[in-house]
Write a structure and sequence with these properties.
The protein has helices at 32-44, 62-65, 97-110, 202-211, 241-249, 253-265, 277-294, 298-304, 322-326, 383-389, 422-441, 451-465, 495-501, 530-533, 554-564, and strands spanning 23-28, 48-54, 72-76, 94-96, 117-119, 121-128, 133-139, 144-150, 152-155, 177-180, 194-198, 217-221, 331-334, 338-341, 345-348, 353-355, 359-362, 376-378, 381-382, 406-408, 444-449, 510-514. It is built from 15 helices and 22 strands. Among the domains are: 19-160 and 366-442, FAD/NAD(P)-binding domain (3-Layer(bba) Sandwich), CATH 3.50.50.60; 175-228 and 274-308 and 316-360, FAD/NAD(P)-binding domain, CATH 3.50.50.60. It is α/β, with parallel strands linked by helices.
């Protein structure tokens, strides 16, 4: 056996074990995910440099961009927060986009996160050099392109932020005002106007009740059915002053309320399995509520209520007031896709033509393909091309094979539809912090998920999805890959399942390359421990009168979590920092 050279300065033989290297991180996007990453790095990592590039003039991502009337979150407001950062003064059960924007904006201010953020800077390219990333960034104010470098690149650009016009001929012919829900023009007055609304996804469902009382006439174009109705007890409503007072003033009241709602959010997975009692019962409840709200309008029932796919195949939304708006006399519903725009309106697949001379609103969503909007190049591969030629394939929603030191938040198959979303973002940020810590303390040059591990995960995911309602034949952005029949957006399990899956890093799934001639043990340093270099440390810390009960085995830890609801993590002196709070 030939030993690798000890001559490289990267061996760091003059330093104790796990000595931290400085690390430079670039994060793409200052929405919720980017802000959470900045918070976690600031809290847990030392010796780091972070730049967060954000294309918008402000932080908060989609909640800055989406300002259409009625825009809100379809998750209960008190649970659309970070797990550790409650907000006491939500106006109602579902927070408005402005309130959510304010929440994340205030979070950035409270924890001084703006020091890391450059707004109106859009990443337009990234190239792996062999030991780091060269990143091209366009300054949207000066229109100049600058170059930056980093050791680790994190894409926190989000899922629903790349809005798009519908692929309909004649967009340039239309003579009225053309709007998109993700680029709303607040100067447009809809009072007394004849309006067209294309789309019955989440945006269209929220928008219609807000504009129906204003417009003289609204023609709604639907190309498919959708399950629309709140769960019993979750009708959107404002909080009373007394409720707000109790949230703000009574110790423990808000925490108990948040946990009660979260338990419900974490119990929905059985609904998404085909043919189960849970799905059938939920369907019966939803069907009954939809028919009640459609008030006997048989044509609406036949066109809107799905018959060819199960409840949950498409993301369903509370839709407060939507069904009631559809039956109003100034609303016409056209169950046919728009095939062409004219100067004055829309032509449809069924041959009908409908005048909407004043305003046409496209609630047609986003490019949810996961294909990056700019080149991300490593070696001969561009992730744009890789994910265009095949279904997007990630490692646990966190990374892509063959793209070193590149991590993602809410990448393909993340936990976005089977329970709470933001705790999944927190867990992914925690995981990224652990990977960065490992890079700092183990003299690593590069890391990337093993391609075989990605293939195995995707195979498991595809097999799991076959048992679920998501595999039914519905049009859904959950199926955003090239095949259009694979589920690329959702995690194969519950959110709680995901938290357990990524709580510990499976280093066996990763490929590492090392500095210092490639020897993986250079981190051992000069033979001294971190404990010996700390003048305040107890050099006999492990001597005790009896053994403790902190679990070492993963399965025992899981049982303790399930029994008490508390995450128990053993602290020690093994490697680097210890994230007892993660």
């Amino acid at each position: 056996m030939v030993l690798k050279s000890f001559t490289s300065p990267e061996w760091r033989l003059d330093k104790p074990i796990h000595t931290e290297r400085s690390v430079k991180v670039i994060c793409i996007g200052a929405g919720a995910s980017g802000l959470q990453l900045a918070y976690k790095l600031q809290k847990h990592i030392s010796g780091f440099s972070l730049t967060v590039y954000e294309k918008n003039p402000e932080v908060s991502g989609t909640w800055y961009e989406n300002r259409y009337p009625g825009c809100a979150c379809d998750v209960a407001s008190h649970n659309y927060t970070w797990s550790f950062e409650p907000k006491t003064d939500w106006s109602g059960l579902y927070g408005t986009s402005q309130e959510i924007y304010t929440y994340f904006n205030d979070f950035a201010d409270k924890y001084a996160l703006r020091q890391y953020i450059k707004t109106q800077h859009q990443v337009v390219g990234a190239k792996w050099t062999g030991s780091g990333w060269n990143v091209s960034v366009k300054d949207l104010v000066t229109d100049q392109t600058l170059n930056d470098t980093c050791d680790i690149l994190v894409n926190a650009g989000g899922i629903l932020n790349n809005w798009k016009w519908p692929d309909i001929p004649g967009l340039d012919k239309y003579k009225g005002t053309l709007l998109h829900t993700a680029r709303w023009d607040e100067s447009v007055d809809l009072k007394g106007k004849t309006v067209g609304l294309i789309g019955n996804g989440s945006s269209g469902i929220q928008l219609l009740p807000a504009i129906q009382p204003l417009a003289e006439k609204i023609t709604v174009f639907m190309c498919g059915p959708a399950w629309v109705s709140p769960w019993p007890g979750l009708e959107g409503r404002p909080y009373t002053d007394e409720e707000k007072r109790r949230f703000a003033e009574e110790p423990g009241h808000l925490l108990a309320y948040r946990r009660s709602v979260e338990r419900g959010n974490n119990s929905i997975l059985p609904v998404f399995f085909k043919g189960t009692d849970a799905n059938n019962k939920a369907r019966d409840v939803m069907l009954k509520m939809m028919k009640e709200k459609l008030a006997g309008h048989k044509e609406l029932e036949e066109g809107l209520i799905p018959t060819t796919f199960a409840l949950g195949c498409r993301r369903f939304t509370p839709g407060t007031g939507y069904l009631e708006a559809l039956v109003q006399p100034n609303v016409q519903v056209v169950f046919s896709g728009v095939t062409e725009l004219t100067e004055q309106g829309c032509k449809c697949e069924n041959g009908s033509e409908h005048p909407v001379p004043d305003v046409l609103i496209c609630a047609t969503g986003f490019d949810a393909s996961y294909r990056p909007r700019f080149p991300i190049v490593a070696g001969t591969k561009n992730l744009q091309d890789v994910w265009a030629a095949q279904d997007p394939e990630s490692y646990l929603g966190l990374a892509a094979a063959d793209f070193p030191n590149y991590l993602t938040i809410l990448g393909p198959n993340s936990p976005i539809g089977t329970g709470p979303l933001l705790i999944g973002v927190e867990a992914q940020a925690d995981y990224i912090v652990k990977m960065i810590d490992h890079w700092q303390t183990h003299n690593i040059r590069s890391f990337a998920p093993d391609a075989a591990a990605v293939r195995d995960f995707v195979a498991y995911k595809d097999q799991f999805m076959g048992k679920t309602v998501w595999a039914d034949p519905c049009r859904s952005w959950y199926k955003s890959g090239s095949s259009r029949d694979k589920i690329t957006a959702l995690w194969p399990g519950s959110t709680l399942h995901y938290l357990e899956a990524i709580r510990q890093v499976r280093f066996e799934d990763w490929k590492f390359e090392y500095e210092g001639g490639g020897n993986r043990f250079t981190y051992l340093g000069n033979g001294q421990s971190q404990t010996e270099t700390n003048p305040d440390a107890d050099l006999a810390y492990y001597v005790r009168e009896e053994d403790d009960d902190l679990p070492l085995a993963r399965n025992k830890m899981t049982r303790i979590i399930n029994k008490t609801g508390t995450v128990v993590v053993a602290e020690g002196t093994g490697e680097g920092r210890f994230f007892s709070g993660l």
